[in-house]
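Treating backbone geometry as a discrete language has practical consequences that deserve illustration. In the encoding step, the backbone of a single protein was reduced to a row of integers, each denoting a local shape. The amino acid sequence and the backbone structure tokens for this protein are reproduced below.
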Amino acid sequence: MTAQPTLRPERPFFSSGPTAKPPGWSLDKLDTRSLGRSHRASYPKSRLKYAIDLSKELLGVPEDYLVGIMPGSDTGALECAMWTMLGGGRPVTVAAWESFGNVWIQDAAKQLKLPNLTTLDADYGEVPDLASIPQDNDVVFTWNGTTSGAKIPNTDWLAPNRAGVTINDATSAIFAMEMDWAKLDATTYSWQKVMGSEAQHGMLILSPKAVERIESYDPDWPLPKLFRIKKKGKLDRAIFEGSTINTPSMLATEDYIMALEWARGIGGRQAMFERADRNAKTVLDWIEATPWLRNMVADPAQRTNTGVCMVFQGDWYESLSAEEQANVPKKIAAELEKLEVGYDFNGYRDAPPSLRIWCGGSVEHEDIARLLPWIEWAYEALKNGEL
């Protein structure tokens, strides 16, 4: 029998969303004074505003940008930006290189039916030629491919003061990678990704140019109530002061506040970047040193520091049928979950057969280091017919 490692991760949480809670998290640390009250009452509303203000502070969002809480997680925030800003005959490019980016392509093509639409896509592990996007075009893109592990290497392809608006899905990049705010007009993320908080609420960050677009443009299509961010022809700025469109979960809000305060306490976003970089480097170096694995992303400049994705290779793996190959990561992940060594690190269901280890700042480096020998053990056990 293949010998098991001796050390186990203390917190075996490696999901790419919802991600691991911050170290030291517990329910009894949450402020519960807003629970059971109207979110429009003074104290609950002040907590929503505090979540907005603390997010803006930690992310270094420019003072003249607006930050608001939206329903429907990152999806709700991103689709609100698309539904309220795109169209009117303007040319639009939607760029995608993994599952969630392809959802925005489907929204643009099949739901909004934008007539002047260009789509750019690429296989898992690659990024399309973003430099080919005209600067006059509105553009929708995903900063970091959550299901492929491929990120944009830089923002050189976005010109300063470009004519089109730039809509950025940053949900698996925010708090792990620095945002180039001057080139971003609408940026969205969810609480449950890099901050390890609860799902169903998203954040919408708008530049002055985005506000101008929203106020000067009325789409032809009907807008669901959850996307109606204008009142009497102007942006409803109350949304960006804690008056949410629909009723938020104050419990989830307090959980997010706790995560933000934890991040501020360890040194803010720079500390979060450093934690993610260290975690990811350990996994990336291990992949390079492991002959039966390769990174899904070939270009090192495009490799993420959050959801690192790896695929299998080598003579034994390549001798298997396609169905058997697909079962390799599933069996490894299932066995380590059963042993309570690692949870939820199988690759995304639509991605190539793979493993995906979340390396964001809420994950402790020692837990990452302890997980890797267990994956080696499970692989050898599977190869030897012991799993």
Remarks:
- The mean pLDDT is 97.
- The chain has nine helices and twelve strands.
- The radius of gyration is 21 Å.
